[in-house]
Amino acid sequence: MKAEIIAVGSELLLGQITNTNAQFISEKLAEIGIDVHFQTVVGDNPDRLDEVIGIAKKRADVLVFTGGLGPTKDDMTKETIVKHIGSTLVSDEEALFTIQQYFEKSGRVMTENNKKQALVFKDAIVLPNRNGMAPGMAVEKDGIQYVLLPGPPHEMQPMFTNFAIPYLLGVTGRKEVISSRVLKFYGIGEAELEYRIQPILEKQTNPTIAPLASAEGVTLRITAKAESLDEANKLIAPVEGEIRAIVGEYVFGVDDDTLSSKAAEMLFQNGWTIAAAESLTSGLFMAELGKEPGIGVSLEGGVVVYNEQAKVDQLEVDQGLLDEFGIVSSECAAALAVSVKRKFGSSIGVGLTGAAGPEPHDGTPVGTVWIGIVSDDAEMETYKLSLSGSRNANRRRAAFFAIYYLIKHMEKKEAKKMF
Amino acid sequence: MKAEIIAVGSELLLGQITNTNAQFISEKLAEIGIDVHFQTVVGDNPDRLDEVIGIAKKRADVLVFTGGLGPTKDDMTKETIVKHIGSTLVSDEEALFTIQQYFEKSGRVMTENNKKQALVFKDAIVLPNRNGMAPGMAVEKDGIQYVLLPGPPHEMQPMFTNFAIPYLLGVTGRKEVISSRVLKFYGIGEAELEYRIQPILEKQTNPTIAPLASAEGVTLRITAKAESLDEANKLIAPVEGEIRAIVGEYVFGVDDDTLSSKAAEMLFQNGWTIAAAESLTSGLFMAELGKEPGIGVSLEGGVVVYNEQAKVDQLEVDQGLLDEFGIVSSECAAALAVSVKRKFGSSIGVGLTGAAGPEPHDGTPVGTVWIGIVSDDAEMETYKLSLSGSRNANRRRAAFFAIYYLIKHMEKKEAKKMF
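Predict the joint structure of the above. Result:
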């Protein structure tokens, strides 16, 4: 089966945004064995979109559209396709209800043009939008599959994964099942990871191993094909073991784990509480942990102490210590961790200090970061980072590294408890 | 003049990389008045590329290709186009010299296939590559312009800006220039914004007005074409005035402003300092402000007080007040703002409290947020939000709304200072 991805939106042709949707969809289609032969971008122009559909029909079996499902007059993807395939638009009750709810809740008045978003092809399967108003849809016409998705990535991505992929799997009728296991790494670069597991990578054909770098570390996706899920998983397990034997120290989780979800899970399971004192990250570490539902049980709170005076005034960090070792030091990170732990009465304390940039801090090079972690029954740990990104890349990576070290700290605590 | 951008590379169709080249080139072409009508991505496949060229020739005057100029057997962009237009390939001496130099410098041995990179169409203008080995080229055939560029962005971008743009300006012989003004909005949806300025949108052809929604609010891009930059800007000014007259209250900045950069600029300019007490956002508000270099001068710091006890213990919020009005209340937001301002001795205090979800908080519906802002010379302001997103969308929007209200608060303070 061959696919073409058609992104609709003049903002793409004006270069105002990047077509990340094409990348996301291409990757997901590859995973289920559908080859993408073309990606096309066309503006908010019915005639040109119609022309693009005509060309795509001749060279692909699956046309995946993104964008142009919204309420404005520029949004004309549905209207153009419905004419092309000779269907009609009807209002979808569930979608209309979702839209009405949205407006009721926000106390804003629903304008007439918003109702347009609930219109779907009368013969289509509706793909629910859990993160926005416009539903997606999927329909087959003359042997061609038409899949329509909204443009905003945070709406499109979950819709595609949760509803379009199962639909397309049904269409392809593949018997072969695919199972994936994802290992999540932090603190090691993609190139180094690949280098260290090169012997394993080279001999593999089934399962395959695909590394991928992201803002939150590197992932390895181990994918096996077999007649059943069980058999596929049996192919994966020994390969995972081989990889962990070499680079297991950098693994912080699997599959859908994120740094914050893994840390929260460990805090919850052990009944530990945490507080943090943040300088260069100014709240980013706590904000990341705060992503997790129910975190209030474990996150006692913390302080943002950006400048030197605040560290002394708010956390009683010793001025003499700051004068001797500087703000960006192992000693300061440790003092922040100890002080905030005491102040909030938590079982774990974390301190973050560093020079985010763009200017060095009192002679400390940009990218130098110290992280301190202390807890009731463990030695103080401090870690130094030497980051080389922009100010905000450095701040983000400092927060992520702190969560990664927190997870490793808790792994050690858990191991100790077992004896 | 109409252009089509054709990116060649199977890695794009596999979703391994994003097509940032199309965005970059589109933006630059718009600036010199060349409209991009289509962007196409095709794999490393000569037949399919040939087909794509055939289609593009019928609908565009300028075909800009990226990728497939390298030394490997997958690289076949030149070879396919040269057949299509009936030219021949010759070795370019300067390009060959560059390649030889590159290998000499790196101490590596030049393999035969690397010479292939120096081949150019015999009738083409060569576009030098200052950051890699493969040169680009530009040639006209039967009224169609063919511009070939390398794929790696760090090679393509300077080549396009420094050599392709001047070539295309020569071809178009245009005098017309384009100027853009971007207005940035928060607190109003794209549909409502468009609805309210509909009369202005309808009558406009030059300048044009394009709305765009993003995570950080909505933008309106006003773009005018004229003989000079001055004249273009004169067309933009009255339209901006008309828009501001209707929806100016939602404008927080222009052009490259972000919520955090605008807030930081106003804090810096007025010498004001700020502290925040964050509950549901757990540091997100301060982390956003922390993006701005030099923020330490204005951001005194703050506290994360996630649970009820922390609010009482750390900020001496009155337990009776919490019992009477609840944690998610105007009164609690105000108390947080007042207390953190006093604690950190800042001129402005901000308090954030709310129910982020997924579960309601003590009967308060998910998405309810209260923001309090207080400062030395102004009345306490509190704002209620009723958000309808996921937990983390709600937290992000609460932090963004708080910065938006902070900007509006400071605008009022500035106006007061002027009297």
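The two ends of chain A are 55 Å apart (CA to CA).
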